[in-house]
Design goal:
Layout: H1 2-15, H2 20-33, H3 36-49, H4 54-67, H5 71-80, H6 86-100, H7 103-113, H8 120-133, H9 137-153, H10 161-172
Helix pairs in contact: 1-2, 2-3, 3-4, 4-5, 4-6, 5-6, 6-7, 6-8, 7-8, 8-9, 9-10
Length: 174
Amino acid sequence: RHKEAVTALRTMLSSNPRFTDAWAKLGSVYEEMGKDEEALHAYGEGVRSSPASAAEFALSMTGLYLKLNRLDEARKHAELALERNPAGAHQFLARIALQSGDLVTAEREVNAAMVDEPAKPRAMVTLAQIRAAQGRMGEAVQILERTRADVQSRQMRVEHLELALGDLYAKMNP
């Protein structure tokens, strides 16, 4: 039903191009379809239609730029979101630094993200990935196991937690 959603959203936007929620939804639909460049374009149009909403679109754009390994653009958009969503922005800045191999910056940014309690479990996943990149696999597993127990007790779901844990066990036992 993605094609129908795109058609409906495009029709809506043709009559009201300043409808930022529609641009955001169009971007997310394109992401679900795997059309990352189209998603970036939709988010960019949302920013152009309402510059005051730039920070709201910035993290969505950051995630896509990171996925596409366009790290400078990802960093720029994460920095745009620092004021409105510091935990999310610091989390992305940590992942950008990790992906570029700058483990010192990655750790500093992930620690800044952990200040926000709701963001802490996701930040712990990134911290474990940093520990693994440092060759500290046992510590990385401990971080993820503690995080998994914590989120299970609170009936939460943390994106990439199980994937990161499985990846670590696979690297430890080739």
